[in-house]
Amino acid sequence: MKKEASFTVTPWEVSGEVDYDKLIKEFGTGKISSSLLQKFKDLHPLLRRGIYYSHRDLDLWIKDAEAGKKVSIVTGRGPSEKMHLGHLVPFIVAKSLQDKYNCNVYIPISEDEKFFIKSNLSFEDAQKFADDNVIDILALGFKPDKTFIVRDFSYQNLYKHSCKVAKLISYSTAKAAFGLKNENNIGWTFYPAVQATHILLPQFVSGSHRTIVPVGVDQDPFIRLTRDIAEHSSLGFVKPGAIHAKFIPGLRGSAKMSSSDAETDVIYLSDSSDEVKRKINKHAFSGGKDTLEEHRKLGGNPDIDISYQYLRMFFESDDKKLEKIYKDYKSGKLLSGELKAILIEKVSSFLKDHQKKRDLAKKQVDKFILK
Amino acid sequence: MKKEASFTVTPWEVSGEVDYDKLIKEFGTGKISSSLLQKFKDLHPLLRRGIYYSHRDLDLWIKDAEAGKKVSIVTGRGPSEKMHLGHLVPFIVAKSLQDKYNCNVYIPISEDEKFFIKSNLSFEDAQKFADDNVIDILALGFKPDKTFIVRDFSYQNLYKHSCKVAKLISYSTAKAAFGLKNENNIGWTFYPAVQATHILLPQFVSGSHRTIVPVGVDQDPFIRLTRDIAEHSSLGFVKPGAIHAKFIPGLRGSAKMSSSDAETDVIYLSDSSDEVKRKINKHAFSGGKDTLEEHRKLGGNPDIDISYQYLRMFFESDDKKLEKIYKDYKSGKLLSGELKAILIEKVSSFLKDHQKKRDLAKKQVDKFILK
């Protein structure tokens, strides 16, 4: 909800060079401090390397988790035709926290939202995309007895819960928070209640307790809206917490990986090894120098190099190996093509594995659906 | 949706002396013709005595019904603390048509609507009122295998169906049809989709076919809204039909019986014989003359006498007996007190019976709930 000369971050637009510390001030969230970061030590790179950098009530959530109290995680998906690497971020994080704290994870699938917003999307296709996305999510290996997929079109209690929430949100408030327009359909204008219900699902299902929602920092206005109503006497819940991620850059180095630049900016979970190789070689933004001689002499810049960034965020979990890559690239010892080759190998191997796990996950879906 | 010097009829306001024929022109509905009325010959007084006087596609509905094709009826209830006589009207009619044509009746209970609209109504009370109202409705004797109660908070497919409908209604359209305001909560602004879903329920549940909704004529704008979307390619339904009732006057002779004048204008289904006697004797608007002498000499006016009107609409099904009452009252042979005594006896006996049937209906509710 912010516009500056240099950058824009709203739930509908991310552009320019984002000043993440400024967003913390603007949104009134907390920085994930070094003492909190300590708790992430043995977790996924996305957590321990500061991609998740800001939070609301994470300290209270960890405290309860460590005291053996019930805590849980919510992270949902607005299903699209196919998922890309960036879409996995909150799920990887949820899985990592589930593994460490053995907590419940609730995964709402907002097929309704997509159906309302996309005028040409049929009811059947909205569900087909959801079916497919659920498989990608479950392929990550969530625990069947502790993970609950909520399909908006079929979860028995969704409307009932959403009614309770809807009564607490005026059209004016929803309009301001979600940028609603008069010509939008009334499913769309109701959806803010459903979204807040998603965030409150663990508490609707199993009573008041601490929850955390991993989100991109641009999504924080929705967290705030939900925190504003959670403690209302008719609900009696705890304000939901959140951890906020920086944006995952696109392959070309765009601010946020997005399917609107599908061919050049995005790695899909369904991409073949050949596609991965071609995309990275052709499009991955490089921090290397223009010529071999220059690169050898002056070195590359890993901080702006997408291949290095993807290794740091997703694919090289070994800190020492990552450090060596960083140094070698910076010194000019490691060439751009060689760095890309490392990433290509890692991504191909990850996706091959993921695609295999998808086949297994397909048969397990029913175990995860909250009826 | 109509304002004249002489009368006002909108879904939110009914006042003045209603010109029912003018409403037919205004709304573009059809008058229930004498040939259609013929079909009602052996049905409840509300049908055969012209209280239901206007329609949309009733002719097509009856044609299909008589050809043995599937037809059904929808009539719902926004649950209130307790039901009064006026509330029974569409249900009596639905029952009468079910008995004659052996058709399905769908009864949506909009506990959500009341919850959204009444700021002080709790979620629990909205359901409690619905529980109670359902018993009053079932006490009328609907067929268990052909009657489906749909509770908005618990019917599994309600939200899914409503999503399909919601996508076809813009906020602007809903705002115009339902008088929505920006400060209304977003449950309220979504409700038009739920209401249209109610009207389309038989077709959602068992495919495209002719349906009829008995409504007060003031509710026709909602029928029109639903007819406008029913045939959309994403639904593929038949436009729902309707039959429109004139207003049931209040005890004091007000235009429409309403709980806002509970004590003086309304007979509740839970009223005791003593209450009925007291209310009718004290408040029932009389068409009689001021003095016994005058009445004997000049006669009363049954056409404005509430006791006579209630006998005509609800309680004296024997046409010959009714005609005798009419003549005797008009001639002055029958006094106002005597006419009231006839009504008191009929109402007391009806309510005593109803209250007994309620006790039986309580145990049957589960058989009727659509899951």
How does the SSE layout of this entry go?
The structure is a homodimer of 371-residue chains.
Chain A: E1 2-3, E2 7-10, E3 13-16, H1 20-27, E4 30-31, H2 34-38, H3 45-48, E5 52-56, H4 58-66, E6 71-74, H5 85-101, E7 104-109, H6 111-117, H7 123-138, E8 147-151, H8 158-166, H9 171-178, H10 186-206, E9 210-216, H11 220-230, E10 241-245, H12 262-265, H13 273-283, H14 292-298, H15 306-315, H16 319-331, H17 336-362, H18 365-368
Parallel strand pairs in A: 6-7, 6-9, 7-8, 9-10
Antiparallel strand pairs in A: 1-2, 2-3, 4-5, 5-10
Helix pairs in contact in A: 6-7, 6-10, 8-10, 10-11, 13-17, 15-17
Strand order of the largest sheet of chain A: 4-5-10-9-6-7-8
Low-pLDDT stretches of chain A are none
The secondary-structure class of chain A comes to alpha/beta
* Largest interface chains and counts: A-B, 38 and 38 residues
Number of helices, where a helix is a run of at least 4 consecutive DSSP H or I residues of chain A: 18
Give a description of the structure.
Chain A has 371 residues and is an alpha/beta fold. The mean pLDDT of chain A is 94. In chain A, strands 4-5-10-9-6-7-8 form a seven-stranded mixed β-sheet, sandwiched between helices. Chain A has helices at 20-27, 34-38, 45-48, 58-66, 85-101, 111-117, 123-138, 158-166, 171-178, 186-206, 220-230, 262-265, 273-283, 292-298, 306-315, 319-331, 336-362, 365-368; strands spanning 2-3, 7-10, 13-16, 30-31, 52-56, 71-74, 104-109, 147-151, 210-216, 241-245. The first copy, chain A, has two domains: 17-247, HUPs (Rossmann fold), CATH 3.40.50; 259-358, Tyrosyl-Transfer RNA Synthetase (Orthogonal Bundle), CATH 1.10.240. The first copy, chain A, starts with a strand and ends with a helix. In chain A, 51% of the residues lie in helices and 12% in strands. In chain A, a hairpin with a 2-residue loop joins β2 and β3 (13-16). In chain A, α6 packs antiparallel against α10 and α15 runs parallel beside α17. The longest helix of chain A is centred in the C-terminal third of the chain and has 27 residues, at 336-362. The first copy, chain A, has 18 helices and ten strands. Chains A and B meet through α6, α8, α9 and α10 of A and α6, α8, α9 and α10 of B.
